[in-house]
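User: My collaborator sent over this chain with a note saying "see what the structure looks like." That's all I know about it. Can you take a look?
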Amino acid sequence: MKTVSRLVRSVLVGIALGLLTACAADKATGKTPPRVEAFYGSTTLEFLRSPDRVEAFRLKENPHHGNPYTISESVTEVEGPIGVDPASARELSGILTDDQSYGWDYYKPCLPEPGVKLRFIRRTAHTDVYLCFRCGTLMDADTNRPWAMANFDPAHMKLAAAIKRIFPKTSESQLLH
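Assistant: Without extra context I'll predict from the sequence alone. Here is the result:
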């Protein structure tokens, strides 16, 4: 029995080391992790990895207006566009393209109410990413496909800090709506 237990432990340690090595290799080579690529798609990833510029908007919910499952109909811009400085844009790009930023393995029964929209612009085109800090859910509103959601709980504090630097006069509660 001890031999089986050691074997199982060895296999689990080997798997864990392999996963850590793969993640480190992806970061070192700049390769996008497969789950991040599957979530965003190659077009949106190009915008996130190398935008010409990034703009941020603060949003509020549009109660009883439009389809709540269509982001653009369910929110109104109340502030912005705010030009995001290059260092913060790189930070946001890094967070959003990092596999470790997402909780992939669980679902939240939540209808997100995004308080922030990030617009990643390349030449004359753009893609929008919406952040709901109330439930820690991110929505990809790429116009080429229906929007998708992902949980950003592991990166919640990093994203909140970056957004707070962009909107320094905005209270935490205002980011929730």
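A starting point for your reply to your collaborator: The beta strands are 53-61, 75-83, 116-122, 125-132, 137-140, 148-151.
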